[in-house]
Amino acid sequence: MDLITASLPSLLSGLAITVVLGGVSFALGFLIGGLVALARISRFGVLKVAAIAYVSVFRGTPLLIQLMLVYFGLPQLGVRIPPIPSAILAFTLYSAAYLSENFRGGILAVHGGQWEAAGSLGMPYHRIMSRIVFPQALRVATPAIGSRFIALMKDTSLASVITVVELTRVAESVGSSSFRYVEAFVIAGVVYWLVNSALSAGQEILERRMARAYA
């Protein structure tokens, strides 16, 4: 208990950084993932090929390597990005690749007859997507999207390798200064578990509300 009391300010600061990394990266990944999904189902060959290549690269390589390329590799090309923006950039690109597949699966789950019916009424493509297809696709994809958000919150611990002082980095620092590594990392693990439990509960509430809306 004394370790928790002594390290509480640092833990709260690290938790705040963790939440910022996960929240901002997920929000940006959500937007980019939606655009990539649209490109993936596009009739334009160039867009489709580019989207397939993007998803293949970012899903097929470890997140840690992507993170280190952004932070340590880009400076060799004359592009220097501070640690936190570097982590957000890497997490955003990584999560967008997975989210795009979640969106694509949801869009493909919408029956083709609804596309045809809306098209026969003269609705333009963007209106069909925004009013008919995307709301249904989002409902289908919500469980997978929620799981991706929870996974991303845990992935933020990798930011510690590029000197971002988030929750895992704080636990490491507390452990090294007190030589009580077990307690320090157990405390950090409990905090991650509490955060992700809250996110899981929120996801279940959201899923129930969306199910009632379409009941």
TrEMBL record:
Cellular compartment(s): Cell membrane
Any Pfam family: BPD_transp_1
GO MF term list: transmembrane transporter activity
UniProt keyword list: Amino-acid transport, Cell membrane, Membrane, Transmembrane, Transmembrane helix, Transport
Recorded topology in the membrane: Multi-pass membrane protein
Any one GO biological process: amino acid transport
UniProt domain ABC transmembrane type-1: residue ranges: 15-200
PROSITE patterns: ABC_TM1 (PS50928)
InterPro entries named among the record's database cross-references: AA_ABC_transptr_permease_3TM, ArtM/GltK/GlnP/TcyL/YhdX-like, MetI-like, MetI-like_sf
TM segment ranges: 12-39, 51-74, 80-99
GO CC, one annotated term: ATP-binding cassette (ABC) transporter complex
Gene3D superfamilies recorded: MetI-like (1.10.3720.10)
NCBIfam families: HEQRo_perm_3TM
UniProt record similarity statement: Belongs to the binding-protein-dependent transport system permease family.
Protein name: Cystine transport system permease protein
Organism (species): Sphaerisporangium krabiense
